[in-house]
Amino acid sequence: MKKCEIFSSLKVPCTSNIVLRLDGRNFSQLSRKLEFEKPYDIEFVKIITESSCQLFKEFSPRFIYTFSDEVNLLLGEIPFAGRVEKIDSVLASFLSSAFTREIMGQDKFKEKLKGTKPISFDSRLIPLSDQGVVEYFQWRQAESWRNCLNGYSYWKLRETHSQDESMHILHKKKSSQLHELLFQKGINLAEMPSWQRRGVGIYKKEFEVEGINPLTKQKVKSRRKKIFVDWELPRFDENFFTSKSMLK
């Protein structure tokens, strides 16, 4: 029967950067069930960020980028000898478990989760060149910005309009028109938190730490890399990734 496992030997190309995108399954239903604040619920963002940190600790990617219910990993050392089935299935299940454990630990969500379907993420694997990595994360960050613009526009309209009316007003509106709509309602997206506009990044950052020299008993300073959660991401460009040694 082993020969029936037709994709079990499929491996990632060894000369490419590997990005993995994990997406929450049916998270719009989960959002309604748990009554997340709109357009952003900071508790949800903290939960998916902490879950992503656990993923970082387990698999040591070079970079994780998350917004909405999406988690993107730029892998470092490729796990499971590069076997695509294993990478996709294990990382998706790991994130599903980590997210479930985190959200179940929140009293405000725990009761509402009773009777809901199990939380799950899907996964896809994307081999990229160095330039492709930059362009990929720019693409996802642009999507984060669109989510921000559309989310604020829709939920601001819902304060005075029905769902159908809101969708009708927004239909085929250009970005400039949405900005004007929000401006008239007293909202300037440039003043919204950076993580809402550009997402959250997780990577290793060098910090200065203080310790004691065991021989001299004197205080000494050294530099160590630790996992850093960046809530103030810049707009992605090549310099962002090269300056943090994220490219091969």
TrEMBL record:
GO process terms (BP): tRNA modification
Cofactor(s) of this protein: Mg(2+)
Listed Pfam families: Thg1 (PF04446), Thg1C (PF14413)
Gene name of the record: thgL
Entry keywords, A to Z: GTP-binding, Magnesium, Metal-binding, Nucleotide-binding, Nucleotidyltransferase, Transferase, tRNA processing
Ranges where the tRNAHis guanylyltransferase catalytic domain occurs: 1-128
GO molecular function, one term: GTP binding
InterPro entries associated with the record: Thg1_C_dom, tRNAHis_GuaTrfase_cat, tRNAHis_GuaTrfase_Thg1, tRNAHis_GuaTrfase_Thg1_sf
Lineage of origin: Archaea, Methanobacteriati, Methanobacteriota, Methanomada group, Methanobacteria
Coiled coil: none
Major enzyme class: transferase
Domain of life of the source: Archaea
Presence of the UniProt keyword Transferase in the record: yes
Its EC number(s): 2.7.7.79
Domain Thg1 C-terminal residues, every copy: 133-223
Full protein name: tRNA(His) guanylyltransferase
Family: Belongs to the tRNA(His) guanylyltransferase family.
